[in-house]
Amino acid sequence: MKFSGFSRDLLTWYRRAARPLPWRREPSLYRTVVSEFMLQQTQVATVLPYFQRWMVEFPDFRVLAAAPEARVLKLWEGLGYYRRARHLHQLAKIVAAEPGRERTPEGWGELPGVGPYTAAAITSIAFSARAACVDGNVVRVLTRLTADESPYPDGVSAARVLTPLAEELLPAQAPGDHNQAMMELGATVCLRRNPCCLVCPVRSYCAGAGRGAPEAYPKIAPKKVERMEVTRVWCERRGSLLLHRTHPDSRRLADLHELPTAEQAGVKKGTGPLLARKKRRITRFDITESIHAAKPAAVRSGEGLVWVPWAELDAIALSGPHRRWIAELRRTGGPAMPRSARGKSEPLLR
Ligand code: ADE
User: Fold this and answer.
1) Which of 47, 59, 187, 253 is 20 to 30 Å from 214 at the Cα level?
2) For a pocket test of ligand 1, which of 33, 38, 39 has the largest count of ligand atoms closer than 8 A to its C-beta?
3) In angstroms, rounded to a whole number, what is the distance separating the alpha carbons of residues 244 and 309?
């Protein structure tokens, strides 16, 4: 057996070297579920303060299930991919309604927001189920381990093809620790660039390191990047700022507020003075967003438009970059910024 001893050596290292993350220090089903949702597409360092705040306000499934959705989104604000927060909230309602019910990995996979990776992570960590987790980090470890020359069209297909190998490596004892050790190795040793092979606990098993070219793996086709231009509107009226509240069913930003696009505000593109130009990358899109000032009279009514008084801005859920842009524009004085906040939020512009 080429890999006999692999998991033993990996686990010995993990138990000595793993970062003492809060969901590892005091594990529970709830903490495992929350951490796995937050860690989807997000790095550990970003998640840590969110996880701590979340546990103070929503200490278990029952409290989370009873919380208003606006509060759940507010605590998620800045983590991005907001559908995760809504799914986690729905999941908490389902689990809290049947507290004693046991679920198989397949059963967990049927809950909102739980894909194969998250189902394997939750059930292996919380119930010692023999289910292998394969995310981007684990794909990197496995393809290096076997010097896998196969070209993969994307990470998802690589994960699918590599799952049998991940299962082969999985021990009967402590599969949850083994899965976390694979993630930890990918996150701290088997890095995308400049992997630390000299301190790797499983280097003796690694064909990629043996060939002196671990960075050559995995062979995944680069994502095609698409450029996008978005024009946004900055419009103030009597101590309120015009925002757009995304439809609750939206994939990316359900129920979250943003500066409206010109289309949402019914304003002709790029007419008012340019206040700021911002670039960001969301998934495979390179987006340039231009923020132009508009007069209230230029705005036409539209679904989801809301006037939010300055004093209420902190209380609503705003997408992270938009909160930064708004603060920056107020600070650096885009158009004249009122000092005081007056009036109540008007639900819809009419
Ligand atoms: N990424 C996904 N799940 C994780 C976990 N349990 N620990 C660290 N990183 C992770």
Assistant:
1) 47
2) 39
3) 13
- For residue 15, report the distance from its CA to the centre of ligand 1, in Å: 15
In this structure, are 192 and 233 located in the same domain?
Answer: no
**Exposure string for 63-73, b = 16+ CB within 10 A, e = fewer:** ebbebeeeebb
* 121 touches ligand 1 (CB under 6 Å): yes
Query: Do both 213 and 230 map to the same domain?
Result: no
Position 349 in a domain: no
Domain harbouring 337, CATH code: 3.90.79.10
Sign of the torsion angle spanned by Cα atoms 137, 139, 140, 142? positive
Q: Is residue 170 situated within a structural domain?
A: yes
Residue 113 reports pLDDT greater than 60: yes
Mean pLDDT of the chain: 91
CA angle 184-190-193, nearest 5°?
130
| 236 Cβ below 6 A of ligand 1 | no
Nearest CA owner, ligand 1 atom 5 = 180
Q: What is the full DSSP assignment across 37-52?
A: HHHTTS-HHHHHHHHH
Whether 346 is covered by a domain: the verdict is no
| Structural domain containing residue 102 | 6-220
Protein residue with its CA nearest to atom 1 in ligand 1: 39
- Percent residues over pLDDT 90 in the chain: 78
Is residue 77, in this structure, part of any structural domain at all?
Answer: yes
Give the model confidence (pLDDT) of 132-144 as tens digits: 999 999 999 999 9
Q: Do 95 and 235 reside in the same domain of the chain? A: no
Mean pLDDT is lowest, of 1-5, 262-266, 277-281, 340-344, for 340-344
Q: Is 138 in the pocket of ligand 1 (CB under 6 A)?
A: no
In ligand 1, which atom is closest to the CA atom of 32? Answer: 6
Cα 175 to middle of ligand 1, angstroms? 14
Q: Are residues 178 and 213 in the same domain?
A: yes
Per-residue tokens: 63? 């409290």
The total number of structural domains that make up the chain: 2
Compute the average pLDDT of residues 219-224: 92
Cα 39 to Cα 80, 88, 136, 216, distances in angstroms? 11, 12, 12, 26
